Amino acid sequence: MNKRKRFILSLGVLLCCLPAQAQQVMPTDAQILHLLNRASFGPTVGDIDTVRRIGIDVWINQQLHPQNLTSPELDGRLDALPSLKMSLPQLADTYELPKNIKDLSEDEQKDLRKHQNEIVEEAAQAKILRATLSPAQLQEVMVDFWFNHFNIFAEKGMDKWMIGAYERDAIRPYALGKFGDLLNATAHHPAMLFYLDNWLNTDPNSVVAKNRKIGINENYAREIMELHTLGVNGGYSQTDVTTLAHILTGWGISEGKEADQRTHFMFDQRRHDYSNYNWLGYRINGGNESEVETVFYILAHHPSTAHHIAYQLAQYFVADEPPQSLVDKMAASYRDHDGSIAEVLDTMFHAPEFWDTRYAQKKFKPPFRYVVSVLRASHVEPAGDTKILQGAINQMGEPLYRCLTPNGYANTNDQWLNSDALLKRIDFAERYANIVTTDPSPALIQSMGDNWSVDTAKAINNAAPKLRPALLLSSPEFVYY
Amino acid sequence: MISRRALLRQLIMAGGYCLLPLGRSGWALASPQPSNGHLIVVLMRGAVDGLSIVTPYREENYYASRATIAIAPPGQTDGLLDLDGFFGLNPNLASLMPLWQNRTLAFVQASGSPSETRSHFEAQDIMETAMLNSAQASQGWMNGLAQILPDTHSSTRALNFGNTLPKIFQGRYNVASVPNGLHGGNGKSSVNPQMDSAFSAMYGGNEELGSLYKQAVSARDTEMQDLQDEMQNAGKGAPGADAFVQQSEKVGMMIRRDPSIEMVFMDVGGWDTHVGQGNAKGQLANRLGKLGDGLMALAQNLGDEYQNTTILVMSEFGRTVAQNGNNGTDHGHGNVAWVMGGRVRGGKVYGQWPGLRPNQLWQGRDLAVTTDFRSVIGSVVGGQFGLSDAALRQIIPDYAPSGGLYGLVSA
């Protein structure tokens, strides 16, 4: 707190200096701001100085290998959220709605649903806290990226109580690891198999199919190729989709009465199609789990996957329409390093395209990034249960963990930049300026370094002091990144 | 002193005039703007099962392919509502039957995109750009339309409902967005005047934000002032349970109050029924029921403006003719388009029916496409706004009129 108060004292000085400084922008500072904007959720007070001191390369390397970047403060906040540490069976026992829920009174039903919703709220709170407070910023950025890449939806049945565990167990450990491991982890997680229906996918000629009147479901087979790996133009056909659905039969969720019996991945031999197939130009011999694992291996190592992942990363980190030369370099890096995500990012951060000024300050912040960047730049710790922040992100159109469709939330301007979005940023900035206890202007100015345009600096200098925070937070320098 | 709300109400009662924001601080009476009429496009994202909407109940193979999810023929329990002796309407859409009977509701069966894609996202892009190679499109087709219609000098002629700007509205024309929900944002009427001058100055050097800011303020004024007063006057209490119904009421009301709004886009999701689709009851039935209620609410709230409006409902592709292994349907091909409004020659299912016998199916599994979706859009847009084929080709590059749709909508 003391640290924060100090900035108030320097407010007058900083504001006086603004126009003069803005005219002689130091290129290094602009580079550092660009790096912090893209590789983190935005600079906080002192970040620019830190990067200047240790050097851009060292900072990147720390972020790519964040094992030592920890925050006891953050850990303490997360410890207060019980659901974060629960296993899937514990979650089921604690949060699953009883089978006889319809027999209960309306109030009892409401209470139970409210209790269940807490789990999504805790997941959302943890997401906001981590993005704001974690020193391992790139890791949090990548968790956000991969969650959207392998999106599931909290409002689909049991994914509500599994969604936090899915991120924790299937996404987070691999966010900077090998893509193949990430693909495998999501493919083995009940939350994904439930979301894209593969838990029901059954060989139509099996006894189970006949008894239960179930059969093929091609939902997961399609999305794993279209969205997760090869990409929509990755060179597969409808026959490949249907064939993969047959290969993936029996790849599902365990069954049983007790929570620990029905909450883990299970390959059900009785429902699997053991035929041999030609798929994607490969001969796939019918077999057990190893047959399916072969398929995942092929997908993770396919050149179309290398290109698709490279393109998506370049779009997220560099430009909505990323330069081909950069995508090619990143795809080559993917192939050369067995799909190592850290290596692909390292290639990207060291490519001249990343540092091309024409891409800086061109992406419009999506709601979650915007709100978190406000907290970081104003050096404010999100207090309490963060419900106000969750509500704001929700109103701006990105309710956390609640993207219905499997492609996840977009990060491109064509999705987010429109007149109402701008007005909502302004609304949020005004409300935020009213609810924070200390004037955030000094911290904001300091966080962003000498990177303000003349227009913004003038508007801020001319405005009454109480209007300044909202102006800063709605400025072009702040709504773009 | 008379309150602004009371004053507004008096002015509204005076009739014949609409209220337009003048600058941002004052209000003025203005003569009614010349309007080109209205086009409302609803995109059902997720690929709805069109065979459950306009159902070919005379097709043996329909019932043979769908053991548990078919809808019974007319006359039976929970049966279809007969349309023309061959097709029946889903009974959950009963609220729309009056529009069918007064011939302002039509369908185009077996329409869709000739593209082979079964990707939701690629197919939606195609539908929103009206180009098969949507990656090459520089704009959505409704944005293109806003560019070529005669200028009415309305800052809110094209309105998007939702938090993100969909592809269909992306492009050079600056489309205003209004948020979902009854009282978007935090319910306040506008940016405060003191802030406004500061923002205008700050965005002055940034063309993109500067023009979006002007648009935003104007759209919010229109929406907030016109609508909240109206809602309170009409005595409508709590909003309905379903977001689409609520949004439709709002759209209908806004257009009735401000006829210079010419184009509205809405989307509604949740149609990707891979599992447990249901038949006349169940998941899909419930959603269709709400969609029908929403469309009816839209028609009713438009009031007299319904006569000048065409509503087009589409979905990116249809679903497999046969049910899958989980009482659901997977991604298919041909689908049904819905067209309603005062200028529609309705009471008819348009389009050539390709049949459902195995040898009639596209790629052996799906309803074939016999009417290109671009012909449907062209026919609707051309009819509604009186545009020539040459004009239509400016926004739908490969537009070809379809003889089968002749007279579907007339200006």
Order of helices and strands of chain B: HEEEEHEEHEHHEEHHHEHEEEEHH
Terminal CA distance of chain A reads: 27 Å
CATH topology of chain B: Alkaline Phosphatase, subunit A
Number of helices of chain A: 27
- Please give the oligomerization state of what you see: heterodimer
The largest sheet of chain A, given as strand count, sense and whether it forms a barrel, is: 2 strands, antiparallel
Shape call of chain A: globular
Cα-based radius of gyration of chain B, to the nearest Å: 22 Å
The average pLDDT score of chain B comes to: 84
Report the strand count of chain B.
14
Helicity of chain B, as a percent range? 25-40%
Written account of the structure:
The complex is a heterodimer of chains A (481) and B (411). Chain A has 481 residues and is mostly helical. Chain A has helices spanning 2-9, 11-23, 27-39, 47-54, 56-64, 72-79, 88-95, 106-133, 137-149, 159-171, 179-187, 190-195, 207-212, 219-228, 238-247, 289-300, 303-317, 324-336, 341-349, 367-377, 387-395, 413-416, 419-435, 441-448, 454-462, 468-474, 476-479; strands at 251-253, 265-267, 277-279, 282-284. In chain A, the strands form two sheets. Chain A has a two-stranded antiparallel sheet. A two-stranded antiparallel sheet of chain A has the order 3-4. Chain B has one domain (37-180, 241-405): 3-Layer(aba) Sandwich (Alkaline Phosphatase, subunit A). In chain B, strands 3, 7, 8, 9, 10, 11, 12, 13 and 14 form a nine-stranded mixed beta sheet that branches. A three-stranded antiparallel beta sheet of chain B has the order 4-6-5, with no helix packed on it. In chain B, a hairpin with a 4-residue loop joins strand 5 (81-82) and strand 6 (87-89). The longest helix of chain B is centred in the middle third of the chain and has 27 residues, at 207-233. Chain B is globular. The interface between A and B is large, with 58 and 60 residues.
